[in-house]
Amino acid sequence: MRIVVAVKYVPDIHAERGFADGRVVRSAEEGTLNELDENALEAALRIIESLPEDERAVSEIVAVTIAGPEADTAVRKAYQLGVDRGVRVSDDALAGSDYFGTARALAAAVRRLAEEAPVDLVITGMAALDGLGSVVPALLAAELGLGQLTLAARLEVADGEARITRELDGVTEELVAPLPAVVSVTDHANSPRFPNFKLIMAARSKTVEEWTLADLGLDPATVGAAGARTHVLAATPRPPRPDVELVVDKGEGGRALAEYLIRNELV
Amino acid sequence: MTEQTTPRTNRTVLVLLDTPATELRSSALELLTIARGLGRVEAVTLEAPSVPTLAQLSAYGVEIVLQAELPAAVRGGDDAHLSPVVAEALAAALRLRDADAVILSATFANKEAAARLAHLTGAGLVIDATSVTESAEPGPELADAPPAGSLVAGKRVFAGSWDTSCVVRTETAVFTVRPNSIVPEPAPVAVATEVEGFAVEVSELATVARSVSREVHERAVGGRPSLAEAAVVVAGGRGTDGDFGPVEDLADALGAAVGASRDAVYEGWFDEFVGQTGVTVAPRLYIGAGISGAPHHRGGMQASQVIVAVNSDPECPLFEISDFAVVGDLADVLPQAAQVIREHKG
Ligand SMILES: Cc1cc2nc3c(=O)[nH]c(=O)nc-3n(C[C@H](O)[C@H](O)[C@H](O)COP(=O)(O)OP(=O)(O)OC[C@H]3O[C@@H](n4cnc5c(N)ncnc54)[C@H](O)[C@@H]3O)c2cc1C
Ligand SMILES: Cc1cc2nc3c(=O)[nH]c(=O)nc-3n(C[C@H](O)[C@H](O)[C@H](O)COP(=O)(O)OP(=O)(O)OC[C@H]3O[C@@H](n4cnc5c(N)ncnc54)[C@H](O)[C@@H]3O)c2cc1C
Predict the structure, then answer these.
(1) Whole-angstrom Cα distance, residue A218 to residue A111?
(2) Is residue A259 included in any domain, yes or no?
(3) I want to staple A174 with a disulfide (CB 3.0 to 4.6 A). Which of A239, B191, B213, B274 is the partner?
(4) Residue A43 has pLDDT above 50, yes or no
């Protein structure tokens, strides 16, 4: 079984986030592996761990990211959790990619891995906590011509099929697709493990493979800012909220709340 | 950002209807209002529209409703809801009407349908827009300034802390628009609305992943508005200690939707949570009770207009982004507030 996991390097949501020149500020200090991609990694690890010993021995999990060199922190975290290989696709021409450029580059990386040996499954997170588009998995499936099983709260792989259960907009659904397939998992699918000491040490000596657009046979004009179908025209921080009006409840707190709402015509 | 003016060009804008079989919710009426600001509006549906829906469409100035006729193998079955299938129906409508833009509401399923539609048609895509307007004139300071008449979407990002605007550079554009972005407005004059069928071919790829079971939950909300679309939301967290009674009491006094933190949902105390991985809300009024205000939660509600918090901890992070806050036990504060509001309403 070979599984590719797409992982994104994102600004830490606990840190101050912002834009410069229409692009998200991505620094090496305040960036991290997208938390929701830990669920994707966990899903991949559990599938491999459930295989019989002989199949496990020939299995591989490859983490792939589309980003600049600062994203090695994210790939290294994936190593610490137990993936076998980490690939970063980097190219100056990729800067400013929209959803489609990102999906195209990811798809090309998956195809290249599939040339080495068949890929059975591509797993992604449900959303990147910066862009929050939740569309890359669907686009990746479309690019690769594979079935899309998105927003899985449960994932099972058996008999050449992937089966997911999802809860979406008030609907519970079970979907099935033949392998290979593209699956995105939610934060409900599992609880990501913590890296253990042995893996943390081992991750130190692992290298991140670096691929360029040329390695993937991609035309730079079709990705990055050049190929982007949308451009950011302006990005401005919102003014801070005025200071909070704080009331300590000494028996009349509920009344004060109601009066605030009434005074502001919110009732 | 440009003001919404009378459309300059002869655009056709398609709007996907989410609930045509019953009646349109206010999120759909918002889409129709935004679309009208851009050109001629036509609706697309995968089911037969009901009589109330048709009446709403005529009030909103929609003359043509395009009803997709799916192939027999898909029609009426669960696969008809798959986002790749919906995308192919929308792509067929787009080609048939030579339309310029498609607008959908911002549910998870619609975001995927929008993405696959854009993939099929080469359209640019903006997810979670709060406005769509046309650029009045090219921005002179930009080297690749958009030509006048390009479509520009407003979008609030990073937990409501930044406003961005994105221009679509392709000939066709696809948008998903968040609920509560604008106040819906009927057309100046109502029109006669007609339903037109159109044939959709569904590719093999669209149904490679099949739906094997599908259950729609009739939510026992007792007439409460839906969380994603409500104008007022009251949410409870771990601080309720499992008793959502006070939260529901205040919500009902206000005619609000009820929500929760993810922890409260994982405890099994409620079924829907607000936040980055749950439902994103941007109501006029959000009240959080017994919720600490973790970044994941804030990411899904920080764009609310007025934020009120009730928490026993004076240091709770939700207070930092609140307009009004009460330090106290929610079990005392909420019922009293509900009582005063009921008296006020008479
Ligand atoms: C605030 C903001 C708003 C944006 N709005 C738009 C927009 O409206 N239209 C548009 O075309 N582009 C937009 N972009 C650009 C877009 O975010 C990037 O192209 C991004 O790489 C993919 O989108 P996402 O972050 O929304 O990912 P999602 O679709 O939310 O990601 C889902 C999963 O896909 C995988 N994934 C996503 N990106 C990568 C990556 N770079 N490398 C590896 N795996 C990945 C991860 O597994 C992730 O969990 C926006 C970016 C930002 C920061
Ligand atoms: C990847 C990821 C995604 C996540 N996505 C989301 C999401 O989308 N939405 C979400 O909500 N969470 C999400 N979380 C979880 C989030 O990080 C927090 O753990 C969660 O929001 C905390 O819930 P809470 O505020 O109810 O509980 P707590 O943080 O435990 O806060 C409880 C609060 O109640 C107060 N309190 C206690 N008793 C009373 C009382 N009697 N009266 C008044 N106040 C009282 C306490 O002072 C405290 O502030 C996510 C986490 C991860 C890792």
Answers:
(1) 12
(2) no
(3) B213
(4) yes
ipTM of model over 0.90: yes
Helices (H), chain A: 35-49, 53-57, 72-81, 99-116, 136-144, 197-205, 213-216, 224-227, 253-263
Residue range(s) defining the domain that contains residue B94 = 12-207
CA of A35 to the centre of ligand 1 (A): 14
The per-residue pLDDT for range B122-137, each reduced to its tens digit, is: 999 999 999 999 987 6
The residue with tokens 């994932």 is A155
Whether A168 and A151 have beta carbons less than 8 Å apart is answered as yes
Ligand 2 close to Cβ of residue B238 (< 6 A): yes
pLDDT tens for B174-184 read 999 999 999 99
Question: Whole domain around residue A17: which residue ranges?
Answer: 2-227
CA B183 to chain A, closest CA, distance in angstroms equals 16
Strand, coil or helix: what is A61? strand
Which two tokens mark B24? 């349109």
- Is any Cβ of chain A less than 8 angstroms from the Cβ of B140? no
**How big is the A-B interface in CB pairs under 8 Å?**
261
Mutate to test the pocket of ligand 1, among B166, B175, B176, B177 (most ligand atoms within 8 A of CB): B166
- Based on its alpha-carbon atoms, the radius of gyration of chain B, rounded to whole angstroms, reads 22
Report whether A177 contacts B210 (CB < 8 A): yes
pTM recorded for the entire structure? 0.94
Q: What is the CATH number of the domain that holds B288?
A: 3.40.50.1220
Beta bridge partners of B91: none
Residue to mutate (ligand 1; options B126, B175, B178; most atoms within 8 A of CB): B126
Reported as a single tens digit per residue, the pLDDT across A236-254 is 999 888 899 999 999 999 9
